[in-house]
């Protein structure tokens, strides 16, 4: 197959999932922001304009219900609509700048992003005012929704498929339950933790500073349960086991789910596999009690692979799955799985995902929406030695696109990287890459070490392995940095 025959497949990475997308909704007032000072200022202004003695301290002590409800406590019913309109006229000038984010807001939103989730705000507040607050405070929320209270919030939560709703009011609990979402209550509003718990909140936190840790644990549990459910549906499985953190975790999970006797770890042996990777892979599989096979793959015989365009990984993964299929057939196994995770699926420059998908390979980690960080966390909890193992892409990823790949080039890179790693062993180096740029080599190491090591020593060592010239990249290690050198990166991003 030539690269010309490979067309973008936008739906391959998306695929199907065993758990719903993480969508977290938040109430606004006294959940995300302390809007009391600004709201009090507007009510004080209304009291001054109308001469009505409004207890503004009382007003801001019971935020949550719709504005019309509160306005009816101070003005005749016939005047409520007019006073609401007047309130909203003053609101942008007096209420926005006086409001502050509550502790833990930025960290909570960041935690959702890290889990590849989406966010929304569902508030009883006037929708334009919701937007003004979020924009003023720079809160990155995907979907702001206003003018909904209590169980009515469930309408918007259902529409956007929210799985969790966070609020400070009993009405927010009603909204979460109406949508079938997990109700997380924070005791930063008018109700105590005990009152929120008694009302029926599924989870009660003192404030949002506790939310990221709770969310990480909750989502990881949900995704791990989904992974194990999926794995138990297979009697036997072949795991494409590179020895890296992702495929090692998948291998361990499969052994737990269906028993080590029903799992085969297959580590492809070829010039593109760093020599130092094979023995640890064999040891890991043996520790699980899993049969370990080491078939030789011949991606070097594929023109598309040797040509080394941005689609190179397509041909490599095609060779891998086609090599593993006869092994699976020999043992009567229908399931071949790769360690593709949820981050891989959206990273771009992953043509190999499509190649594996076309050949029927499974992606259980991705389907459970497990991120790289979650896989490392779960690996640590399981005591897997691969939990903190640095990423180790195939050696071909070190060769600049357009340079034809040969076994000699791969061996030179492998030797150079092993030499650099040995020189930096005392520095506890994690990431080392020697990028073959054709007329010279680029040495990438952990950015934190750049000012601690002698660059010339590294350059001399790499040149001694056969490179005509070399330099240490001042930006440090960057996964996939070769992609920066593609002339037309978008051509390959969604392959």
Automatic annotation (TrEMBL):
<dbReference type="GO" id="GO:0016783">
    <property type="term" value="F:sulfurtransferase activity"/>
</dbReference>
<dbReference type="InterPro" id="IPR052188">
    <property type="entry name" value="Ni-pincer_cofactor_biosynth"/>
</dbReference>
<protein>
    <recommendedName>
        <fullName>ATP-dependent sacrificial sulfur transferase LarE</fullName>
    </recommendedName>
</protein>
<dbReference type="InterPro" id="IPR023198">
    <property type="entry name" value="PGP-like_dom2"/>
</dbReference>
<feature type="region of interest" description="Disordered">
    <location>
        <begin position="475"/>
        <end position="495"/>
    </location>
</feature>
<dbReference type="InterPro" id="IPR036412">
    <property type="entry name" value="HAD-like_sf"/>
</dbReference>
<dbReference type="InterPro" id="IPR023214">
    <property type="entry name" value="HAD_sf"/>
</dbReference>
<dbReference type="Pfam" id="PF00702">
    <property type="entry name" value="Hydrolase"/>
</dbReference>
<feature type="compositionally biased region" description="Basic and acidic residues">
    <location>
        <begin position="485"/>
        <end position="495"/>
    </location>
</feature>
<dbReference type="InterPro" id="IPR014729">
    <property type="entry name" value="Rossmann-like_a/b/a_fold"/>
</dbReference>
<dbReference type="InterPro" id="IPR005232">
    <property type="entry name" value="LarE"/>
</dbReference>
